[in-house]
TrEMBL record:
Organism annotation: Streptomyces cyaneochromogenes
Domain Leucine-binding protein: 38-367
UniProtKB keywords: Signal
Protein's UniProt keywords contain Acetylation: no
Family to which the UniProt record says this protein belongs: Belongs to the leucine-binding protein family.
Membrane spanning residue stretches: none
Residues in the signal sequence: 1-20
InterPro entries from the UniProt entry: Leu-bd, Peripla_BP_I
One protein family per Pfam: Peripla_BP_6
Protein name: Amino acid ABC transporter substrate-binding protein
Amino acid sequence: MYRSARFVAMVAVAGLAASACGGSASGGADETAGDTLVVGVDLPLQGASKDASEATVNAMKLYLEQVGGKAGKYKVELKVYDDSTAAKGAWDDATCAKNAQDHVANASEVAVMGTYNSGCAKLEVPVLNADPKGPMLMVSHANTNPGLTKAWDPGEPEKYFPNGKRNYARVIATDDYQGAAGAQFVAKDLGVKKCYVLNDNQTYGQGVAKAFAEEAEKQGITVLGNEPWDAKQPNYTALFTSIKAKKPDCVFLGGIFDNNGGQLIKDKVKVLGDNEKVKVLAPDGFTGYPEFDELAQAQGSYMTFMGLASESLREQGGMGAKLLDAYKKKYGEDPASNYALYGVEALQVILSAIEKSDGTRKGVRDAVFEGEGITIPADESAVGKEMSVSPETGDVNVIDVSVLHLESKTEKFHKSWPVG
């Protein structure tokens, strides 16, 4: 694990940022041969997720620069993989499947930070798990679908680990908590009585919508329906016209903004009225998108985020605030996504595993899933709290839910929501 004294000593170290994003060696090939280990970074770099992904990569580059580009005796560099396509403007099944094969084929690569989308992770994890030189570790900063680590849909999570050993971890809590927190919030704080649930028909959206609907009913909210929206539709006027007849006072948008979320919110307001009249709650799949934040029709929306918002991290001080200040100084603005520092947290887990390992894929994976696992102390943690990854499940010990409110084109921290 990283020692804070070493972190402070390395803050001024520079020189890796330009080389880390793209996989070229941080020094010459001869200088680093045999000593340099690669951490893959697997994110959607095209479409609506571009800003959030670039902020996450930049935050990780900055942190790696600050610790001297090393984990224990090993030099470390990042290699960035794009799991999206220009045509789709979002993560893509075939690209995720190819990336998984490319991770395994890269002999220097020992672990993967990613993915952003749970559906992509479900395609990649089994391939990394079956790697004969591994299993190969993946640590996500943003996957919230429960099935990756716990019983959820049929066959989960066992089907993602064909060799019987887990290799997937995350530093963020899951949608069973997020959906429940969102339902409790709209029931208790907003006084919602009738809510219509929509999902984008993808792994993440279906899961968070399911969790929200189940908890909403427990909270006394009438769930008027739970149906998918088709991301390929030119508009959703007919959809919301049918919903209007049911007289909802809330709409839950379970999914990601990439799936035509802009048109969805425009037509929601057009047919059902503004977001004060009929409340809108969206999960973290709608956070960190400047395009969404700037829409007039999106103003007044509430969103949940599975973690602490950057605004909260800065206010609480500590390592998170220092990283945010360093990021703003280097890049001229705050990260576009609250997930950026969770990308750093996931990288901290990987670097700690590398430091404890023998430098092999198996050794890096075993450092997380065998023995006591990995703990990042509070004073070194990018999110300001002691963070432990369970060696039994790969889940994190910290469960935070933030409620955000979109005001004046800014995702403003509204409140923390207690989970329980």
